[in-house]
Design a protein that fits this description.
This protein is mostly beta strands and about 950 residues long. The protein is built from two helices and 62 strands. It has a 26-stranded antiparallel β-barrel. β45 and β46 form a beta hairpin. The chain starts with 8 loop residues before the first helix and ends in a 10-residue tail after the last strand.
Length: about 950
């Protein structure tokens, strides 16, 4: 049976009547507002820039037959930057009007106003009444609404020997409005444990905050120890990304691989052998591995392998195994292959080649058999679908891009040939409006019954911003017989949002989605009229209209969203319908390392057009503390149409409960890492109880060897009339080897030992100590000396390199820093410790001067006798420091923001050190505070 689509007619009539009454009400109210005395501003909105003055005229029109007296014109609040407005009373004769100027300056305090509405109260007297009215206009501020996030230095180092390191992130609100933002951090590649990984920060206009992120290495990669931390800032008001940055971080190691240019390959470069046992008795050994290597100067390669060996049966299976070769802009992959953007599921075994040409063009060709296993004897090797396809991509990521794809699929199991062509284009206009168009065509042919289907897909999406309005429209329609992923689907999602202020916004949303696919007959049986056993049918739909209001108070975020929803589902045997009035609420906050999120959805519903209504509720509470998370869900009665199709035909009075917890940990100096998770699910609807406990462990035996372990315990118990129960266990133990890439042909090994050269002769002698934990650079490749002062750079191609030490920590080379590499090098290098010189900036304030200054970021210079200039930057504590060798230096500041009493100072640095603190005193420029004496 097929259901009727759409919202019930009776409900539709009541909704239309309601909107008509509301419209008439507002029309009557508007007609009554036509007055004889009209007061308004000439311009409803004025665009302003910081530091500029602007004016707007207050217009007062007396359309009555009597004169009126304007008594007071008063601003609603004390607006900063208000220069002039009319203050004297005056008489306005019958039929007269006046334009009164209001002038302001957009200073910093004005730009920081939370409300963009400027309001005035106007009081006037007529012969019969005294009245006060309001007039207002809006200002459109020209401001940068981005949030900047950055570290003080480009390079950030982590010493893995230290239990916990940290970096300081500066978060800067570059706009004038208060913002509450969420900061998400992601490690690329995976391997860093960051706490907190997500954090909420509230920033006033132009405010900077410094937050500390603690970092530990979960999986140290000694081959290429660079990590990128993607920092993404999301405004919690409208859930839009307002800032991002990629932070560069290096895990220090005394054995460092060098790979110049694009020789650095991805992959974990490991091999792991493990034994797996489970309660079903299908026990097996497993081999997993991944490596990246260079075949020639212009040819790079990646290899991945996964294999299982069932020792009791002597059978094996290879899967997720592939070899990838890359040369310039062309990549060839053979083995297990997958791909996307075809509007058709693509995975199997075969080959794929892609190449880039021109500026932004790419073409891809593939041929494969739809079989997850590459080869083996454990599973019966049935013949899967044979696929060939091609894809062409063009355009750029910013303004215009698109792709065209084609797939041919011959399926011998269903005896069907399928063709799918798809095209997508996307256009960005003025960085505010995005338009996306999609088209698709398909054809299916049954090779036995000779039936066939043709289908089509059309889609059009728009996303844009107009002033304070956000508009989203996503639409797609695929015919029932379209053979792509969206077969038989209709989707329409319209959303309009309006931002009232920095912490408040509202939206209205309409959604209508349906899925009703149509398939060819089963080719194994002939088509018989009236016989539905040879056909497939199902139908699902959801239609909803909702409103939403979001607001934030300090660190708390709130959402209220009422909506009306109609859901349907059907197949050949049954159909269900659920009509609901719903109210969704969400509360979330972050308090230090603690995070809370509460979501609740209340429904007032009826099923299958029955007369009686019922109540239902579903709520989820999530709690997070550092690496621990706890989630709980409770549901009372049906909230979805699929809850009405229970196997046990339960009535509506049921309850489902679910609780889940997880914990990630590191201990024993980061040698032991792992995670545990546990959960339980109890359902009165499906009459069962499920539980599960899972754990992952890895213990590092040495820098390149680890033992691994995994376990899973799960249980099932039925509470139905014919109760049953069961349990399942699985565990895995293994050993894992991380490989260090050997020095390739044509490359060299460069080793240094660093020591403190106290007598400046360049030789390591008795009484001179080696320098452990010293940061060393070979060009831009960073490493750290071990306890013996040694560091090794592997795979160094021939060439000229510059050796550097961490001079900011007070070390200086005694040898020529230029290193010529044409063979292996093993060299002792002497360092001289420089002398630390500290200083600070101090403000000389006048009496009654309460305005604070900010000298953070001012550069201080130190010029030596040899003419070499060193620099230091003033930190947030108004302090700076140099590391200098002995000699005479001129310290000076070139900054005209303030006036300095002694902008240049000369100091003498000796080998014994420099114990004084250099002080630069400064004053504000052009600031004189006059005090009137009585």
């Amino acid at each position: 049976m097929k259901p009727q689509n759409g919202i019930p007619i009776s409900l539709l009539r009541r909704t239309i009547l309601f909107f008509v009454i509301v419209f008439l009400h507002f029309s009557l109210a508007f007609a009554q507002e036509k007055k004889d005395i009209q007061i308004h501003f000439e311009n409803d909105s004025v665009a302003v820039e910081k530091g500029s003055t602007f004016s707007n005229f207050l217009v007062i029109e007396n359309k009555s037959s009597e004169e009126i007296t304007i008594q007071n014109i008063i601003p609603k609040e004390k607006y900063p930057g208000l220069l002039f407005y009319p203050k004297n009373d005056f008489i306005l004769g019958a039929g007269q009007s006046k334009n009164l100027p209001v002038k302001l300056i957009a200073n910093v305090d004005f730009m920081k106003l939370r409300s963009n509405e400027i309001q005035f109260q106007i009081s006037y007297v007529t012969p019969t009444i005294t009245r006060t009215e309001n007039a207002s206009f809006f200002v459109t501020k020209g401001e940068n609404k981005n949030i900047a996030i950055y570290t003080a230095t480009y390079e950030n180092f982590i010493n893995p020997a230290v239990p916990e390191s940290s970096i300081l992130l500066t978060v800067e609100n570059q706009g004038y409005s208060k913002r509450t933002v969420k900061i998400d951090l992601q490690s690329i590649p995976d391997g860093l444990e960051m706490m907190p990984k997500q954090q909420t920060v509230s920033l006033e206009g132009l405010e900077k905050q410094t937050i500390e992120i603690k970092i530990a290495v979960r999986k140290q990669n000694t081959i290429y120890p660079e990590f990128n931390i993607n920092a993404i800032v999301t405004d919690l008001l409208d859930n839009k990304i307002v800032g991002s940055n990629t932070l560069y971080l290096v895990v220090l190691s005394h054995n460092r691989q060098i790979a110049r240019g694009n020789e650095a390959m991805g992959g974990s470069n490991f091999a792991e052998i493990s034994y797996n046992e489970n309660s079903s008795g299908f026990n097996y050994f497993q081999l997993r591995g991944n490596t990246a290597f260079r075949v020639t100067d212009n040819l790079r390669s990646r290899f991945n392998i996964s294999a299982d060996y069932y020792h009791e049966d002597g059978r094996y299976n290879f899967y997720d195994t592939w070899l990838e070769l890359e040369r310039k802009n062309t990549v060839l992959r053979v083995g297990n292959v997958n791909s996307n953007d075809y509007d058709y599921p693509i995975f199997g075994r075969g080959g794929k080649v892609s190449t880039k040409f021109g500026k932004n063009n790419q073409i891809e060709i593939l041929a494969l058999e739809n079989n997850y296993n590459l080869y083996g004897t454990y599973f019966q090797q049935t013949k899967g679908s044979t696929m060939v396809g091609a894809k062409y991509g063009f355009g750029n990521a910013k303004s215009f891009n698109g792709k065209v794809s084609y797939i041919f699929d011959h399926d011998p199991r269903f005896n069907i040939d399928t063709q799918v062509a798809n095209a997508v284009t996307s256009l960005l206009i003025n960085d505010k409006h995005t338009i996306r168009m999609e088209m698709g065509l398909s054809h299916e042919e049954g090779l036995s019954n000779k039936d066939e289907n043709a289908g089509a897909l059309m889609g059009a999406n728009y996303e844009g911003k107009i002033g304070r309005w956000d508009i989203q429209s996503f639409n797609s329609f695929a015919t029932k017989s379209y053979a792509g992923i969206k077969r038989g689907s209709f989707f329409s999602n319209q959303r309009i949002g309006h931002q009232f202020s920095a912490s408040q916004r509202a939206f209205i949303q309409y959604q209508n989605s349906q899925v009703e696919p149509e398939f060819l007959s089963f080719q194994s049986e002939p088509i018989q009229p009236g016989n539905t056993a040879n056909l497939r049918y199902y139908f699902n739909s959801t239609e909803a209209l909702g409103l939403g209001y979001q607001f934030s108070l300090k660190k708390w975020n709130f959402l209220l969203s009422p909506k009306v929803e109609n859901q349907k589902t059907a197949n050949f045997y049954t159909s269900q319908e659920l009509f609901s009035y719903k109210l969704e609420a969400n509360i979330s906050t972050t308090l230090g390392a603690h995070g809370f999120n509460l979501t609740a959805e209340y429904s007032y519903s009826k099923e299958n057009n029955k007369q009686d209504w019922f109540n239902s509720l579903k709520t989820t509470l999530s709690y997070r503390y550092k690496s621990f998370s706890l989630n709980g869900t409770a549901q009372w009665n049906a909230t979805s149409v699929f809850d009405l199709t229970s196997y046990y035909n339960a009535d509506r009075n049921f309850a489902n409960y679910n609780v889940y917890a997880s914990y990630n940990f590191q201990m024993l100096n980061h040698n032991l890492t792992g995670s545990f998770s546990a959960g339980a699910f109890y359902s009165e609807l499906y009459k069962n109880l499920n539980s599960n406990i899972t754990g992952n462990l890895e213990y590092k035996i040495s820098p390149s060897w680890s033992t691994t372990g995994y376990f899973n315990l799960s249980g099932y118990k039925s509470t139905a009339e014919y109760a049953s129960s069961g349990s399942y266990y699985q565990f895995r133990v293994g050993i894992k080897k991380y490989f260090t890439t050997a020095t390739a042909l044509g490359n060299h090994k460069v080793a240094f030992q660093f020591f403190e050269d106290k007598n400046y002769n360049g030789l390591l002698e008795s009484g001179e100590s080696v320098l452990a934990n010293e940061i060393v650079k070979l060009d831009n490749y960073v490493a750290m000396t071990d306890k013996n002062g040694k560091v090794v750079f592997q795979n160094v191609p021939e060439g000229t390199y510059t050796l550097k030490v961490n001079e900011s920590a007070g070390s200086r080379l005694m040898t020529d820093p230029v290193i010529m590499v044409h063979n292996n090098i093993n060299r002792k290098v002497g360092l001289v410790k420089n002398i630390r010189v500290t200083g600070k900036l101090t403000e000389i304030k006048q009496a009654y001067d309460t305005v604070e200054t900010d000298v953070t970021g001012i550069v201080v210079y130190a010029k030596g006798e040899d003419g070499k200039i060193y620099t230091a930057v003033v930190n947030p504590k108004n302090e700076f420091e140099f590391f200098l060798k002995d000699g005479k230096y001129d310290l000076y500041i070139e900054n005209d923001k303030y006036s300095y009493t002694q902008p240049t100072q000369t100091i003498l640095v000796t080998k014994e050190g420099y114990s004084k603190t250099v002080v630069f005193e400064y004053k504000k420029k052009d600031t004189i505070i006059k005090v009137k004496k009585f």
